[in-house]
Design goal:
245 residues; mainly alpha; 9 helices; 59% helix; globular
Length: 245
C-alpha cells in the first residue's frame, strides 16, 4: 500500500466544462424550483462545484488536487473503492451516495458534527469549482473555503445542497456520456458504458470540439438562463420604447 502520488492535473478544460454544466443545470431547473435572487446564485455556485465531484475517483483530477494532501488521500482511497476512474462515482449508485451524504449533513446541520461535515463538503466542492473555473488564481481555494464557512454560518442556501449535489453529479455524468469513454450507469451490477451520442458524434476530451463547441454552448446557455432567471429579461421588455410581445 503506497501513499498518494501527485500527478499532473488532467483535462483542465473538461473540469471547467463540468463546472459550467453544473451551473447550467441548476439555472435551467430554477423556474421549476421557484428559486430566484441570492438563492439562484448560491444554487448555481454549489452545483458548479458539485459537478466536479465524481472525478474524486481520479488522482490528478481538479477536485483531487484542490485541498492538497487531504483530497489526494481521499481520491486515492475512492479510486480503489470505486474500481478506478469512471466507474463507481460515475454511476447512478455513485450519484445517489453523493446526494445521500449531502442530505445527511444538511439534516444534522444543527449539531457541531453536522456543521463540520457540511463545511467539509461545501468547502471541497466550492474550492474545486473555483479552481475549475480558474477564479482567484492561487487564492481560489481560500475563496472556496471562505464561501463554505459563510454558507454554513449564515445557513445560506443549505437546503439546496442535496439537490445541487444530485444535479451536479448528473450533469457531470451526462457530460462524460458525450465522450468516447461513456459511463457505467449500472455499476457494479453491469460494466456496460452508456453514451448520449452515436459513435461518430462522440467527443474526444481536450480536442477542438470540447475547447470551442462544448465550452461555447455551455457559456452561451448559462448566460441566457441567468439573463432570463434574474429578471433582466423582464426589465428589458418593460423599458420605454420596447415593442410589446
Amino acid at each position: 500500500m503506497g501513499l498518494p502520488v501527485r500527478r499532473p492535473e488532467r483535462t483542465p478544460v473538461l473540469a471547467r466544462d463540468h463546472a459550467l454544466s453544473g451551473a447550467l443545470a441548476f439555472t435551467a431547473a430554477a423556474p421549476l424550483l421557484h428559486v430566484s435572487g441570492p438563492a439562484l446564485l448560491a444554487g448555481a455556485v454549489f452545483t458548479a462545484g458539485a459537478a466536479t465531484a465524481p472525478d474524486i475517483d481520479e488522482p490528478g483530477s481538479t477536485i483531487s488536487r484542490t485541498l492538497g494532501f487531504f483530497t489526494e488521500a481521499v481520491s486515492w482511497i475512492v479510486h480503489r473503492i470505486s474500481g478506478g476512474h469512471r466507474k463507481g462515482t460515475h454511476s447512478v449508485l455513485g450519484a445517489a451516495a453523493f446526494t445521500f451524504a449531502a442530505w445527511l449533513a444538511v439534516t444534522h446541520a444543527g449539531s457541531l458534527a453536522g456543521k463540520i461535515i457540511l463545511g467539509v463538503i461545501l468547502g471541497l466542492i466550492l474550492a474545486a469549482g473555483v479552481r475549475a473555473l480558474r477564479i482567484g488564481g492561487h487564492h481560489g481555494d481560500v475563496i472556496g473555503l471562505a464561501g463554505a464557512a459563510a454558507a454554513v454560518y449564515w445557513h445560506a442556501g443549505l437546503s439546496l445542497v442535496p439537490l445541487c449535489i444530485a444535479l451536479g453529479a448528473a450533469a457531470h455524468i451526462a457530460g462524460d456520456e458525450l465522450t468516447h469513454g461513456g459511463c457505467p450507469l449500472a455499476w457494479p451490477v453491469s460494466r456496460r458504458r452508456y453514451h448520449l451520442l452515436p459513435r461518430r458524434l462522440q467527443i474526444t476530451t481536450g480536442r477542438f470540439a470540447e475547447h470551442w463547441i462544448v465550452s461555447t454552448l455551455l457559456l452561451g446557455g448559462l448566460a441566457y438562463l441567468l439573463w432570463r432567471n434574474t429578471g433582466i429579461a423582464q426589465a428589458v421588455n418593460h423599458l420605454p420604447g420596447t415593442p410589446a410581445r
